[in-house]
Amino acid sequence: MRQLKAACRSGALARRAALAASARIEGSLALADHAAALAFPGGAVVSGFWPIRDEIDPRPLMDALRARGHPLCLPAMVGEDLVFRRLTRDTPLVRGGFGTVEPASEAEEVVPDCLLVPLAAFDRRGARIGYGRGFYDRAIARITDRRGAVPKTVGLAFSVQQASAVPEEGHDRRLERVLTEAGLITCGAAA
Protein backbone atom coordinates (compact mmCIF):
# COMPACT_ATOMS: atom_id res chain seq x y z
CA MET A 1 0.00 0.00 0.00
CA ARG A 2 2.81 2.39 0.86
CA GLN A 3 4.35 1.92 -2.60
CA LEU A 4 0.99 2.42 -4.34
CA LYS A 5 0.39 5.66 -2.43
CA ALA A 6 3.95 6.86 -3.09
CA ALA A 7 3.55 6.26 -6.84
CA CYS A 8 0.18 8.04 -6.93
CA ARG A 9 1.58 10.97 -4.92
CA SER A 10 4.75 11.35 -6.99
CA GLY A 11 2.84 11.23 -10.28
CA ALA A 12 0.35 13.89 -9.20
CA LEU A 13 3.07 16.11 -7.72
CA ALA A 14 5.12 15.85 -10.92
CA ARG A 15 2.11 16.95 -12.98
CA ARG A 16 1.53 19.85 -10.56
CA ALA A 17 5.19 20.89 -10.66
CA ALA A 18 5.09 20.93 -14.47
CA LEU A 19 2.46 23.68 -14.50
CA ALA A 20 3.67 27.06 -15.65
CA ALA A 21 3.85 29.74 -12.95
CA SER A 22 1.17 31.72 -14.76
CA ALA A 23 -1.18 28.69 -14.74
CA ARG A 24 -0.65 28.31 -10.98
CA ILE A 25 -1.45 31.98 -10.39
CA GLU A 26 -4.53 31.96 -12.62
CA GLY A 27 -5.73 28.65 -11.16
CA SER A 28 -5.39 29.97 -7.62
CA LEU A 29 -7.30 33.13 -8.47
CA ALA A 30 -10.03 31.05 -10.15
CA LEU A 31 -10.82 29.34 -6.83
CA ALA A 32 -12.26 32.61 -5.50
CA ASP A 33 -14.84 32.60 -8.29
CA HIS A 34 -16.41 29.53 -6.65
CA ALA A 35 -16.77 30.87 -3.08
CA ALA A 36 -20.57 31.10 -3.36
CA ALA A 37 -20.83 27.62 -4.88
CA LEU A 38 -19.30 26.13 -1.74
CA ALA A 39 -22.52 27.12 0.04
CA PHE A 40 -21.00 26.89 3.52
CA PRO A 41 -23.58 27.62 6.25
CA GLY A 42 -23.75 31.30 7.20
CA GLY A 43 -21.08 32.24 9.72
CA ALA A 44 -19.39 28.81 9.58
CA VAL A 45 -15.75 28.89 10.70
CA VAL A 46 -13.58 27.91 7.74
CA SER A 47 -10.06 26.56 8.02
CA GLY A 48 -7.79 27.37 5.14
CA PHE A 49 -4.11 26.57 4.81
CA TRP A 50 -0.92 28.39 3.90
CA PRO A 51 0.40 27.05 0.58
CA ILE A 52 3.78 25.36 0.35
CA ARG A 53 5.96 24.68 -2.68
CA ASP A 54 3.80 24.73 -5.81
CA GLU A 55 0.43 24.05 -4.15
CA ILE A 56 -2.65 25.86 -5.34
CA ASP A 57 -2.92 29.05 -3.28
CA PRO A 58 -6.13 29.14 -1.22
CA ARG A 59 -5.66 32.72 -0.01
CA PRO A 60 -7.81 34.41 -2.71
CA LEU A 61 -10.63 31.95 -1.90
CA MET A 62 -10.15 32.49 1.83
CA ASP A 63 -10.44 36.25 1.36
CA ALA A 64 -13.64 35.77 -0.67
CA LEU A 65 -15.07 33.57 2.11
CA ARG A 66 -14.07 36.17 4.73
CA ALA A 67 -15.89 38.81 2.70
CA ARG A 68 -18.97 36.53 2.75
CA GLY A 69 -18.92 36.59 6.59
CA HIS A 70 -16.99 33.43 7.39
CA PRO A 71 -14.51 33.60 10.27
CA LEU A 72 -11.21 32.04 9.21
CA CYS A 73 -8.59 29.94 10.90
CA LEU A 74 -5.36 28.21 9.94
CA PRO A 75 -3.94 24.91 11.14
CA ALA A 76 -0.92 24.91 13.43
CA MET A 77 1.23 21.86 14.03
CA VAL A 78 1.45 20.89 17.69
CA GLY A 79 3.42 17.67 18.03
CA GLU A 80 1.81 15.14 15.69
CA ASP A 81 -1.53 16.93 15.55
CA LEU A 82 -3.13 20.00 14.04
CA VAL A 83 -4.88 22.63 16.11
CA PHE A 84 -6.77 25.46 14.44
CA ARG A 85 -6.16 29.08 15.37
CA ARG A 86 -8.24 32.11 14.43
CA LEU A 87 -6.94 34.14 11.51
CA THR A 88 -7.69 37.84 11.13
CA ARG A 89 -5.87 40.56 9.23
CA ASP A 90 -4.04 41.39 12.49
CA THR A 91 -3.05 37.85 13.51
CA PRO A 92 0.73 37.50 13.93
CA LEU A 93 2.02 34.64 11.77
CA VAL A 94 5.08 32.49 12.48
CA ARG A 95 6.97 29.79 10.59
CA GLY A 96 5.53 26.32 11.11
CA GLY A 97 6.39 22.79 10.07
CA PHE A 98 6.63 21.67 6.43
CA GLY A 99 7.66 25.22 5.43
CA THR A 100 4.22 26.64 6.11
CA VAL A 101 3.08 29.65 8.14
CA GLU A 102 0.64 29.52 11.05
CA PRO A 103 -0.89 31.85 13.64
CA ALA A 104 1.27 32.35 16.71
CA SER A 105 0.43 30.29 19.80
CA GLU A 106 -1.34 33.29 21.39
CA ALA A 107 -4.07 33.17 18.73
CA GLU A 108 -7.44 31.80 19.85
CA GLU A 109 -7.97 28.09 19.18
CA VAL A 110 -11.21 27.29 17.37
CA VAL A 111 -12.92 24.20 15.99
CA PRO A 112 -13.65 24.74 12.30
CA ASP A 113 -16.98 23.81 10.76
CA CYS A 114 -15.49 23.55 7.27
CA LEU A 115 -12.02 22.54 6.14
CA LEU A 116 -10.21 23.55 2.97
CA VAL A 117 -7.80 20.64 2.66
CA PRO A 118 -4.45 20.57 0.85
CA LEU A 119 -3.57 17.42 -1.06
CA ALA A 120 -1.14 15.77 -3.40
CA ALA A 121 -3.66 13.63 -5.34
CA PHE A 122 -7.42 13.03 -5.37
CA ASP A 123 -10.01 10.99 -7.19
CA ARG A 124 -13.69 11.59 -7.94
CA ARG A 125 -14.73 9.38 -5.00
CA GLY A 126 -13.14 11.90 -2.63
CA ALA A 127 -10.14 9.76 -1.75
CA ARG A 128 -7.05 11.89 -1.25
CA ILE A 129 -3.39 11.52 -0.62
CA GLY A 130 -1.62 14.19 1.37
CA TYR A 131 2.05 14.27 2.16
CA GLY A 132 2.08 11.04 4.15
CA ARG A 133 1.86 12.10 7.77
CA GLY A 134 -1.92 11.79 8.33
CA PHE A 135 -2.39 15.22 9.94
CA TYR A 136 -5.71 15.95 8.24
CA ASP A 137 -7.10 12.42 8.69
CA ARG A 138 -6.49 12.71 12.45
CA ALA A 139 -7.84 16.28 12.61
CA ILE A 140 -11.06 15.32 10.81
CA ALA A 141 -11.52 12.35 13.16
CA ARG A 142 -10.98 14.56 16.25
CA ILE A 143 -13.39 17.24 15.04
CA THR A 144 -15.97 14.57 14.25
CA ASP A 145 -15.62 13.05 17.74
CA ARG A 146 -15.80 16.47 19.41
CA ARG A 147 -18.77 17.76 17.43
CA GLY A 148 -20.58 14.49 16.78
CA ALA A 149 -20.66 15.44 13.09
CA VAL A 150 -18.16 15.31 10.27
CA PRO A 151 -16.91 18.77 9.27
CA LYS A 152 -17.54 19.84 5.68
CA THR A 153 -14.41 19.08 3.68
CA VAL A 154 -13.29 20.55 0.37
CA GLY A 155 -9.97 19.53 -1.12
CA LEU A 156 -8.18 22.24 -3.08
CA ALA A 157 -6.00 21.23 -6.01
CA PHE A 158 -5.17 21.82 -9.62
CA SER A 159 -7.13 19.57 -11.98
CA VAL A 160 -3.89 17.85 -13.07
CA GLN A 161 -3.68 16.32 -9.59
CA GLN A 162 -6.71 14.10 -10.24
CA ALA A 163 -5.94 10.38 -10.35
CA SER A 164 -8.15 7.62 -11.70
CA ALA A 165 -8.15 5.91 -8.28
CA VAL A 166 -6.31 6.88 -5.11
CA PRO A 167 -5.28 3.92 -2.92
CA GLU A 168 -6.98 4.02 0.49
CA GLU A 169 -6.48 2.56 3.95
CA GLY A 170 -8.98 2.28 6.78
CA HIS A 171 -7.85 5.48 8.53
CA ASP A 172 -8.08 7.61 5.39
CA ARG A 173 -10.90 10.18 5.38
CA ARG A 174 -12.64 10.98 2.12
CA LEU A 175 -13.47 14.51 1.03
CA GLU A 176 -17.04 15.62 0.32
CA ARG A 177 -15.94 17.86 -2.53
CA VAL A 178 -12.86 18.99 -4.42
CA LEU A 179 -12.42 22.46 -5.89
CA THR A 180 -10.01 22.96 -8.78
CA GLU A 181 -9.47 25.84 -11.17
CA ALA A 182 -11.95 24.04 -13.48
CA GLY A 183 -14.76 24.03 -10.91
CA LEU A 184 -16.34 22.17 -8.02
CA ILE A 185 -16.51 18.37 -7.95
CA THR A 186 -19.02 16.64 -5.70
CA CYS A 187 -17.44 13.36 -4.67
CA GLY A 188 -19.15 10.05 -4.12
CA ALA A 189 -18.70 6.30 -4.12
CA ALA A 190 -20.22 5.97 -7.60
CA ALA A 191 -18.12 8.78 -9.11
Automatic annotation (TrEMBL):
InterPro entries per UniProt: FTHF_cligase, FTHF_cligase-like_sf, NagB/RpiA_transferase-like
SUPFAM superfamilies in UniProt: NagB/RpiA/CoA transferase-like
Chain residues that bind ATP: 5-9, 128-136
GO molecular function: 5-formyltetrahydrofolate cyclo-ligase activity; ATP binding; metal ion binding
EC number, as in UniProt: 6.3.3.2
UniProt keyword annotation of Lipoprotein present: no
Cofactor(s) needed for function: Mg(2+)
Ligand binding (substrate): 55
GO biological process, one term: tetrahydrofolate interconversion
Domain of life of the native organism: Bacteria
Assigned keywords, A-Z: ATP-binding, Ligase, Magnesium, Metal-binding, Nucleotide-binding
Keyword Cytoplasm: no
Coiled coil: none
Catalyzed reactions: (6S)-5-formyl-5,6,7,8-tetrahydrofolate + ATP = (6R)-5,10-methenyltetrahydrofolate + ADP + phosphate
UniProt family annotation: Belongs to the 5-formyltetrahydrofolate cyclo-ligase family.
Protein known as: 5-formyltetrahydrofolate cyclo-ligase
Organism: Stappia taiwanensis
